[in-house]
Design brief:
Rossmann fold; binds S-adenosylmethionine
């Protein structure tokens, strides 16, 4: 089968609305077709990969809801290419928006220190370092797979970062003063979570937090209350704003500002 026939069969079955899936899978499997232009140039040439494998990947996406980034083992984040290892969380659009805002906010500054707590594949911290190269960045995660993934991405992006495998709670107890903190921690309440298929592809450790999803925020707020820092940017879940606001309201020495992209910026009063 030639590339153009593969495309025709794909659109007949899945429609025109999923062309991004088609191209991502083709670019992943093919050794010769890596861009849409080269697809056009090779459209009359026989595909250079197994049709069975292509069909299997389409099934994984359409039938089993496997995230595209776990099929092709990479994703774009803030215009950078990140490798995604098995069971490491695929960074989301809200996180990307928070990271862009963070970079925009600090773009005129130099030599700041940033810590990305619960770094996953390293998307936030490594992106900050890539776009603000005078900043020193530390990426923290408790688990080996995300740490390996972050190290691979640092190498791929050609950026330096201090990548530390440690429980974030233990890490924070050792710190008395931090400059800039940014985090997308686990925040889902296991008891009310319904998307069983998601659990098949992404790690429970990346998603769920104790205290109805608030365990990381509770710990972070207590640390912020009792230690010195300049700014803390925290992503949160769609329905968590009111509860987080009530928690922050009770802490006299913290000032906070909730932003539209589901993150809150905290500073000291
Ligand atoms: C929601 S994911 C976020 C990953 C990444 N920041 C992103 O936005 O794509 C949360 C991450 O926290 C890590 N994690 C869970 N519990 C942790 C803990 N106690 N200490 C440090 N990291 C933890 C998980 O391994 C996972 O990579």
């Amino acid at each position: 089968m030639v590339f153009s026939t593969l495309l025709a069969e794909f659109t007949k079955k899945y429609g025109q609305g999923h062309l991004i899936v088609f191209f991502e899978i083709v670019f992943f499997l093919s050794k010769i077709v890596k861009t849409k232009n080269s697809f056009h140039d090779h459209r009359k040439i026989k595909i250079d990969f197994s049709l069975k494998k292509f069909k299997k990947m389409c099934m994984q996406y359409f039938l089993h809801e496997k995230p595209l980034a776990h099929i092709t083992k990479h994703t774009k984040f803030c215009n950078l290419d990140f490798l995604i290892k098995k069971k490491v969380l695929v960074p989301r659009e809200n996180t990307e928006n928070m990271t862009y805002d963070f970079i925009r906010n600090f773009r005129k500054m130099k030599n700041r220190n940033v810590v990305d707590l619960c770094c996953g594949c390293g998307a936030i911290g490594l992106t900050v370092r890539k776009y603000l190269p005078t900043f020193q960045v530390s990426c923290i995660d408790k688990y080996l797979q995300p740490i390996i993934n972050t190290k691979l991405n640092a190498k791929k992006l050609g950026v330096e970062a201090n990548i530390i495998k440690i429980n974030v709670f233990k890490y924070l107890t050792k710190q008395k003063k931090l400059d800039l903190i940014i985090s997308n921690p686990p925040y889902i309440n296991k008891k009310t979570f319904k998307n069983k298929k998601m659990l098949h592809w992404e790690s429970k450790k990346a998603l769920f937090a104790k205290n109805n999803g608030y365990a990381f925020y509770d710990y972070f707020f207590a640390w912020l209350k009792n230690n010195r820092f300049n700014q803390c940017w925290l992503e949160y879940g769609f329905e968590q704003k009111q509860i987080l606001k009530a928690k922050l309201e009770k802490i006299a020495n913290l000032r906070y500002c909730f932003k539209k992209n589901y993150y809150v910026i905290i500073t000291s009063k």
